[in-house]
Amino acid sequence: MEMLAAVLIGLTGSGHCLVMCGGIASALQMMLPEQSRWQRLRFQLALSAGRICSYALLGGLVGWLGFQAMGFGGIARQALQLLAGLMLILMALYIAKLSSVLTGLEQLGSRLWRHIQPLTKRLLPLNTLPKAFAYGWGWGYLPCGLVYSSLSWSLASGSALDGALWMLAFGVGTLPALLVAGQAASTLTRWKNQPWVRYSAALLLLAYGCHTISLALLRLFF
User: Fold this and answer.
1) Is-contact 11 208, C-beta < 8 A?
2) How far apart are alpha carbons 183 and 40 in whole angstroms?
């Protein structure tokens, strides 16, 4: 059930993914070698596979940190679940453009991105599938509030394996939107600016965040 929730969060947050990463996907689509539609789709899948693998690696690392916190730091799992629910609510407000709290987290992540971005540029042009995969791996570290919010779930899982699987499922959820961005760049700008896209995603994330917090409180006090 939790893996399904991760996929749904990726899907509902796709509007944010299109705003954050859609331009990159469209630009990369134009950089790919002249090939048939199927061959270009293979390159897009390689890019996304690298990105999703980097999410899974981060999820595993954060899940391991959660395990350490619960085992040696005396932090209850419910407390980490409260954090995860709060992060989802902040993400909902961020997507709806009602709060910019997560911008601070993205600014912290940008410090890591400054070191990774020059390495990705060395992979251009993306004329082989391994280079596309490697570029996608680096792309996964692009500062993104939605990714950071999802990582809080990996932290609450208290397991490296569960944390990795959670982020893998989340990445799969974001895949359709970014493939559409790459294959249909001409419709991207019109679609991503629709208010209903932002508000629908924000409402679903808000509901799931509140649900998570309520469950954590019930387990903590009852």
Assistant:
1) no
2) 9
Q: How far apart are CA 187 and CA 185, in angstroms?
A: 5
Q: What is the pLDDT of residue 160?
A: 95
**Best CA proximity match to 178, nearest among 3, 55, 47, 5:** 47
Instruction: Give pLDDT, residue 31.
Output: 60
Count of Cβ atoms closer than 10 Å to residue 159 Cβ: 17
What's the pTM value of the predicted model, to 2 decimals?
0.82
Rg for the chain, CA atoms, rounded: 18
Mean pLDDT of 126-142: 86
